[in-house]
Amino acid sequence: MFKPSILAMILAGGRVDELGVLTYYRPKSAIPFGGFARVIDFALSNLLHSGIELIAILSQYRSYSLINHIGTGAAWDMIGRYRGISILPPFKDYENPDWYRGSADAVYQNLDFVHFHEPSEILILSGDHIYQMDYREMIKFHVEKEADLTAAFIEVDPRDAHRFGIAEIESEDPRGGRVVHYEEKPENPRTNLASLTILCFRPQVLYEMLAENQKQNSYEFGRDIIPMMMERNCKIYGYKHSGYWGYTRTIGEYWRTSMDLLGKNPMIDMEKWGLRTNLEHRNIRDCQPLHCGSRAVIENSMAYNGCHIEGTVRNSILFPGVRVDKGAEVVDSVLFFNTIVEHGARLNRIISDVNTTFGAGSRVGGPKVEGSGDGITVVGWNNFVPKGMMIGRGCTVYPQLTRDKWTSSILRDNEVLQ
Amino acid sequence: MITSKDAFVLILAGGVGSRLNILVGQRAKPAVPFGGIYRIIDFCLSNVMNSGMTHVGVLTQYKPLSLMRHIGGGEAWDFTGRTRGVKILPPRTGEKESDWYKGTADAIRQNIDSIEANPSDEIVILSGDHIYQMDFDAMIEYHRYKKADVTIGMMVVPLSEIHHFGTGIVDDENRIIEWEEKPDVPRTNLASMGIYVFDTKYLLRTLAHSRDEFDFGMHILPRAIVNDRVFAYPFYGYWRDVGTIQAYWEANMDIIREDSGISPEEWRIRPNIGTDGRPMDRVPTRFLAGSKVNSSMISAGSVIEGTVINSVLSPGVKVAEGAVVTNSIIFEDSTIEKGAVVDLAICDKRVRIGRKAVVGKGGDNSKLNRAFPKHLYTGITLIGKESYIPPGIRIGRNCIIHPKRTESDFGARAEIADGESF
């Protein structure tokens, strides 16, 4: 009898300090990305195209946006007799009064769900990376090597290696090899092979490790489970991934990854990757085609249905419902759903969260200045930036500020308004 | 068991619409793409949804497959649920007779069983091929207030157009006292929009009168006006019958203009952007460096590197570097290759205009299409579904290029002259 044999569990992630105002009201995986989608859509679309049809999403931080986005799962074809997406929220019972205390604890607390499905392999994914991958290739490698755990790795800039789980792997096979050393966020990384947080486990071993891990006081896959398995000489393999991998852990990274969507041959080619999102979410399927006025200028940009453009847009990404009025200018920016840029306003290197209006003549952000960091200005959702307001580079504006917070007409570089 | 007393809606979607020429070669008129992401019938279905009606029958006859696929289960217009539904009602053979639908009234008569299965006080009968926004709930309220047997949606049209319509002369109460179907000499400028609210019992009674009465405008209404209470429901907004190529093109261009009175978004018109089995969604349109886009509607999934002015693009259209598209309507997944020029054309789905080819050459719109002078007479050229216009070929105005033409079909021809078909 046919039955899905692989269970995928997506770690939807929580709030990330570095992402500031973008994760105030949504988990990291639900952040809008790519002009119409959400970050988690990349993992979900990869699963769809890999033929993996049984999925659980572990979510605890401000889940509503994510739950709303997943809907029935039909958007990714994950609805049917043997197909489905289950969102697993934290719960209390007789034994356990806790929130999810970490990614490994989240899976541990849902082991009865896992047992019920009797998976042949368990694939643990992070829901907040931008990449395309056929997981079947990796699972095939995992099965061939009879591994207890296979983790995917990618070469990163050595300067960034200290931010990831770093492995040293044997080169027995062009696809990858046995992991001989692993360290989470090492101060002095031995290699630049970084973990993508794509982990394929032999279920029995995972169950044992999670149970063992409960005796400790930290419950993360990268920090605790993998090192523990290394210690116990489990068979851990590294699978090398060589395509694009984008991450969005800071505002600057989010912005830079977004810019990889642009250009004639973009590094992130959502059409080629076969990206799917839930068009029911925010009803973007009902948006009329983008309307472009008689004097509009749009260059090297990306925009979805439902935008109205009368002004100038360069090197930018516009989500559905964005309006750029006459004489307004948007450069090097990412504007989420229903951002309104009024007459004569000028935005440069900013990220605007949903439903924010930039009043006529306002100036927000500015071109990059060498040696002063990313300098991206981020404006939280449901704000009304007053007419003529001047906001500098690298500023942060908290979500839904009331009018009385806008006391000054100037916000200098790197200042925070809250 | 259906308990709702909502009016039952029947949409007439079976006509050929032959004046739309090759656009209706493989699809019924209501299924013709419109405004980038819509089909013509979306306006009607969305009006029904926004009027709060939940039981709908769509009467099909001519090439219904595209239409049926588009309507699907009706989710797009919220017609799925325990007591809601949209049903396709094709002609069928009965125990005694088998009949194609002979006309509007005949089509309804052959579906009396559906009317009985959806008990309601009123039946709303609509055409599936008009572009407008209307609240049928308000119309039903009016119908009840007037204690009418039939209420007809009517609007003022220019006298020069009146010969296309059923016309009514009304008294002070808006009661229709005289009816003329497509009159040669206009006596009024009040035209029927093909929107009817019938008292259900009255409709069943009047349809039983004679099987030879197969058309509402020609048979049922003239008799009703003499004997029964027939009222005009005045309508003042934007309404177009896009039954001709010219009207179809103009209505598309109206969407681009802000003051034209048509706005699918404000009207809450819902498309059904079914993905046609595509394994991915349409991604946002990419405007590459050097693109120039003005006064246009662009649907998602397009890639624009050239110039697009005063045009309506459906999803997935590619306009390559140096290509220029003006005053045109381009359907899904068509490609305009490098340096090609397209002016005043309607390109059906998956058309490819080769490098440096020209569609709509010259500026002379005066040579009517020889085969269909009444269809193409203002310069518009039609390119049929999946046709490939080879590089460098020059196609004139008022031309028709039939579907699926290939490079070898063109052979050594370098030009299709104004008014020719191919």
Outline:
The complex is a heterodimer of chains A (418) and B (422). Helices cover 18% and strands 28% of the residues of chain A. Chain A is an alpha/beta fold.
What can you see in these coordinates?
Chain A has two domains: 6-259, Spore Coat Polysaccharide Biosynthesis Protein SpsA, Chain A, CATH 3.90.550.10; 287-417, UDP N-Acetylglucosamine Acyltransferase, domain 1 (3 Solenoid). Chain A is α/β, with parallel strands linked by helices and 418 residues long. Helices cover 18% and strands 28% of the residues of chain A. Chain A is globular. In chain A, the strands form six sheets. A seven-stranded parallel sheet of chain A has the order 15-18-21-24-27-30-32, with no helix packed on it. In chain A, strands 16-19-22-25-28-31-33 form a seven-stranded parallel sheet. Chain B is of the alpha/beta class. In chain B, the strands form seven sheets. In chain B, strands 5-4-1-6-11-8-12 form a seven-stranded mixed sheet. In chain B, strands 15-18-21-24-27-30-32 form a seven-stranded parallel sheet, with no helix packed on it. The longest helix of chain B has 12 residues, at 216-227. Chain B has two domains: 8-256, Spore Coat Polysaccharide Biosynthesis Protein SpsA, Chain A (Alpha-Beta Complex); 286-416, 3 Solenoid (UDP N-Acetylglucosamine Acyltransferase, domain 1). The radius of gyration of chain B is 23 Å and the shape is globular. Chain B starts with 7 loop residues before the first strand and ends in a 6-residue tail after the last strand. Classes of the chains: A alpha/beta (418), B alpha/beta (422). Chain A binds chain B through residues 34-36, 45, 48-49, 262-264, 266, 270-271, 273-277, 279, 285-306, 313, 317-318, and chain B through 35-37, 76, 255-256, 263-265, 268-271, 273, 279-281, 283-301, 305, 312-313. Strand 16 of chain A pairs antiparallel with strand 14 (285-287) of chain B.
